[in-house]
Design a protein that fits this description.
Blueprint (H helix, E strand, L loop, with lengths): L3 E7 L2 E10 L3 H15 L4 E12 L1 H16 L3 E5 L3 H9 L7 E3 L2 H11 L5
Helix pairs in contact: 1-2
């Protein structure tokens, strides 16, 4: 199953809804290209909604880590939302759950960016 990615802007945050599998081949390549496109477009706040990701393999996990590191190099922040139990389990097993900022919902992930803003009197 091909990986579908739908992107939209909300409150200065780029939310990418993903559906399908992040696996070796076309899917992980498409994911990497999408992330590179966002970062070169100077998107600094990115939320990946993985609610409909049905499967991720080691190459997909590698692509996720590479995107996380690439985002950091670009001064951007990457957060994950709507992790299903299997996705969460894979991140736990690979000890990556502590690396990524994860949120129950896309809305919570988007709001977390607003809370991070410094407040000026």
């Amino acid at each position: 199953m091909a990986l579908k990615m739908m992107e939209r802007e909300l409150d200065g945050v780029t939310a990418v809804s993903m559906e399908g599998q992040i696996v070796l081949g076309e899917e992980s390549s498409a994911f990497r290209e999408k992330m590179e496109t966002l970062l070169t477009a100077d998107k600094k706040k990115i939320v990946l909604n993985v609610a409909y990701v049905t499967y991720i393999d080691s190459v997909g996990v590698g692509a996720l880590v590479a995107s996380f590191n690439s985002a950091r190099l670009h001064g951007a922040t990457l957060k994950l939302a709507n992790l299903g139990s299997r996705f969460r389990e894979i991140l736990q097993v690979t000890r990556l759950l502590t690396v990524f900022d994860t949120y129950q919902t896309e809305a919570a992930a988007i709001q977390s960016f607003a809370k991070a803003r410094p407040h000026h009197a």
